[in-house]
Amino acid sequence: xxxxxxxxxxxxxxxxxxxxxxxxxxxxxxxxxxxxxxxxxxxxxxxxxxxxxxxxxxxxxxxxxxxxxxxxxxxxxxxxxxxxxxxxxxxxxxxxxxxxxxxxxxxxxxxxxxxxxxxxxxxxxxxxxxxxxxxxxxxxxxxxxxxxxxxxxxxxxxxxxxxxxxxxxxxxxxxxxxxxxxxxxxxxxxxxxxxxxxxxxxxxxxxxxxxxxxxxxxxxxxxxxxxxxxxxxxxxxxxxxxxxxxxxxxxxxxxxxxxxxxxxxxxxxxxxxxxxxxxxxxxxxxxxxxxxxxxxxxxxxxxxxxxxxxxxxxxx
Amino acid sequence: xxxxxxxxxxxxxxxxxxxxxxxxxxxxxxxxxxxxxxxxxxxxxxxxxxxxxxxxxxxxxxxxxxxxxxxxxxxxxxxxxxxxxxxxxxxxxxxxxxxxxxxxxxxxxxxxxxxxxxxxxxxxxxxxxxxxxxxxxxxxxxxxxxxxxxxxxxxxxxxxxxxxxxxxxxxxxxxxxxxxxxxxxxxxxxxxxxxxxxxxxxxxxxxxxxxxxxxxxxxxxxxxxxxxxxxxxxxxxxxxxxxxxxxxxxxxxxxxxxxxxxxxxxxxxxxxxxxxxxxxxxxxxxxxxxxxxxxxxxxxxxxxxxxxxxxxxxxxxxxxxxxxxxxxxxxxxxxxxxxxxxxxxxxxxxxxxxxxxxxxxxxxxxxxxxxxxxxxxxxxxxxxxxxxxxxxxxxxxxxxxxxxxxxxxxxxxxxxxxxxxxxxxxxxxxxxxxxxxxxxxxxxxxxxxxxxxxxxxxxxxxxxxxxxxxxxxxxxxxxxxxxxxxxxxxxxxxxxxxxxxxxxxxxxxxxxxxxxxxxxxxxxxxxxxxxxxxxxxxxxxxxxxxxxxxxxxxxxxxxxxxxxxxxxxxxxxxxxxxxxxxxxxxxxxxxxxxxxxxxxxxxxxxxxxxxxxxxxxxxxxxxxxxxxxxxxxxxxxxxxxxxxxxxxxxxxxxxxxxxxxxxxxxxxxxxxxxxxxxxxxxxxxxxxxxxxxxxxxxxxxxxxxxxxxxxxxxxxxxxxxxxxxxxxxxxxxxxxxxxxxxxxxxxxxxxxxxxxxxxxxxxxxxxxxxxxxxxxxxxxxxxxxxxxxxxxxxxxxxxxxxxxxxxxxxxxxxxxxxxxxxxxxxxxxxxxxxxxxxxxxxx
Lengths: 316, 843
Known about the structure:
The complex is a heterodimer. By secondary structure, chain A is an alpha/beta fold. Chain A folds into 2 domains: 4-44 and 109-309, Aldolase class I (TIM Barrel, Alpha-Beta Barrel), CATH 3.20.20.70; 48-107, Alpha-Beta Plaits (2-Layer Sandwich). Chain A has 11 helices and 13 strands. In chain A, helix 3 crosses helix 5 and helix 5 packs parallel to helix 6 (172-178). Chain A starts with a strand and ends in a 7-residue tail after the last strand. Chain B is built from 33 helices and 22 strands. In chain B, the strands form 7 sheets. In chain B, strands 4, 12, 13, 14, 15 and 16 form a 6-stranded mixed beta sheet that branches. In chain B, strands 7-8-9-20-19 form a 5-stranded mixed beta sheet. In chain B, a hairpin with a 3-residue loop joins strand 10 (464-466) and strand 11. The relative contact order of chain B is 0.12. The interface between A and B is medium-sized, with 29 and 34 residues.
């Protein structure tokens, strides 16, 4: 168990990504830059400080971060820590260690599979009774495919159901690494048009689609998702092409197609990281968007695809 | 025994399909939950009625005491009971199918001067009941108020509390509700004995005539050589007087029903009234012969108990068990159909809400609600051989609960390794409807706790729950549950500050008899300034627990003895095994199992405080003990850094499945249980520790200075067995499985008076089939770790905030406040805020 992973969160008791109650391990680093990403702390593989200004108890009461920062990287406004000068910051995290108020969060930590298993194991009773287990998510877990495979394997050795939530922007050999230890793959199709895909996610969709084709020929269970983004991928043409792809290229071999309606999630994390949110300025009418998502669902169903809105698997 | 995950099934069926979905969370604007219009009308009539004060009982009990001044106490009590019953104004309400109130109109509170008039008189003169911030009661007219005051005068010096107060020493009172409120013995100090489940199977089987026959046989058996001859004789005679009076009272109801029927124009209603009259005539002396009569006799027997004394949490035992033979026979013989059986159950359930009482202001501040409270109704579980008992009534009582959604009864489902899946589904459907019932008990640790109290395995399996979470044997145990609230955070001040309160100084009302003389409230067992090791801190906790347990337990024994001397209970004694057999009143220890069960609050606050001391002072050595003490005395002002730190994730906190902090919680839990368990009580039996606060953690917090968990003075202390949440944030941040694991690390069976875990889930986390299954799995997995109890609030903070703003729209919104259900809008603002603030656990 020598392999180390870079992890930005381990959430216990999640129910959205895979069956039953689960522990979800979020691996840090992603090759995509989706504008709507709700986990900006998972994008870079580097450990990053995040600043929660509201928690800062003000320089006059504390100043512990200033006392330990040797690089003058802390930015204050109105007496409170408001950000970090990312140019100056060397990522020593002494400020995060010193802060008594949880105002500086260290996004990412280096953990071994054994470290993760120690946390995962604690909720065994809950997995057993709910048919749940462990989900690797991110970021993109396949960016750390050696570690991911090792962790999934450790889970299987203890009898846990395993799931990997991946964008599949990886070499097929990396996908193959995890398949022996993965019961369920959750992946998504963001756009069928390569140029549009690149426009909104930073990469083209060729490799993703290719991996989906190959994956559909394996035994692994697949849940496919579409993050439905108003004005981006919810047009008839794209929806039709997505359905064509699922039915022809993947032979219809998906358990469920889940439509995840766009939500403005993760804003506070962008702020903590000093990053701009890629969907700023986009406005849409929630009512008509909901209606649109229902129509998309009905279209897929009309094509014979088991399509649901949301992740719960509910008949809505 | 353990909690397994076998999927077992039952053919037991309620009125609704087992997986009927009742929607998720509280909904405003819905009034008609029941399929029976009659039930909806009765429910609405109850909600629309005002809480009144009724002086009739007060008048009659006073007259009876005056007429019998020379009689032995037990006979005086019996004569008073008789007088009340003979003179009570009777009420038959529209639509009702079950008769019997508590010698007062529905929702009007009778008065019980036998226990205490001191607070009654004080409050009526200086802190009027109708001017309270919450839990108001109203006099119908000024004449009633004047009569109330006049009647109080007769009773001064004659109450149970007067006898108690005359025996208490300064050392016993300095920490009580009249002192610094480390422990509060209000319940039995100022009120009657309740908190038990009577033997309903017996009364339904033999009726009042059977009770009288047993008493007469006891009387005939008496031996004049027995030195207790006269007290036993008086007791038997008192039992006979009470039950003869009960018979006459019920016949008065029969007559009234017949008279009402004669004047009734609607033939259907006339028929109902005549049937109620016939039922009453049958059960006035005889056993119940039908399901309807069983419910009728149940209601008479219970309300008579509440007429005799105002003890609360007079619980219904295992109703699906004792009632089933009558349902089964009626169904088998075709005397009844399921729909009518269901309607009768629901009418009975609505009726259970009628009894109300006025509590003393001190109690009201820590424990709100105007019902008697604590009428726990236990369903499910196993029989003496360990077989599951789920039957149609189990399901129908759940249906009745969700169709009525009222404060009473406090429905409780026992679960065990063989609980059928259908019962779990039905239970969870009710829970996620969000009206606050039912709560769930775990058989394995509870049966173990019962055996710790001395029960055999067969007896232990027949436990029912009393009040909030107190397990007891119906008809065989007088456990005096809920005997005192213990504020462990307040006594922890003595641990931190050399036996002194944190705010020790001339402003304190006790200064002249305490600090000014160089004295301490508690023994000096060290202070944060003097401890040289963490072990010394733990040792100090143990010594303070021992000292304050001495004060509290000796006080409770005095109170117990005062009940025996001033207010024996000859009517209800007949329902407890041993009393009629041996000629000994329930209050004198007449039944098989006896005990006194206080309950601790704030254990997590203390545990997180210990974690801060251990980690910051003795391990990291970042702060000295003196610095921590200074911060507390300053209420954290000027110590912002330390305040932030103890509230941050950098310090270990209970409730996160973190062994470091959970171990300290275990220390607190075990130290408390060890210091109470095994102490003998005056009635026989022993003290039984409970770990629950109901909603008292809010009121107790108001009286408590800052604590090292990062709580400021006045904030709520931790609730029940749950983790800390301070104004700075919740200390549990790892979600519900982590809380569940933390809570399950202690041996719950040590807390023989019960433990309570409150978990709030937002509406959207439990929706759909997935949400239902996850809730079932959560309960199953949690119970596998052998904790005793769990209950859920299914609601959003948004709903609660809306209810604060528009109370009129949320009049019937029940919320489970730590062990009991209450109407949210009737709670005080602090308690509402506390509920809103509680961690929202997200799936």
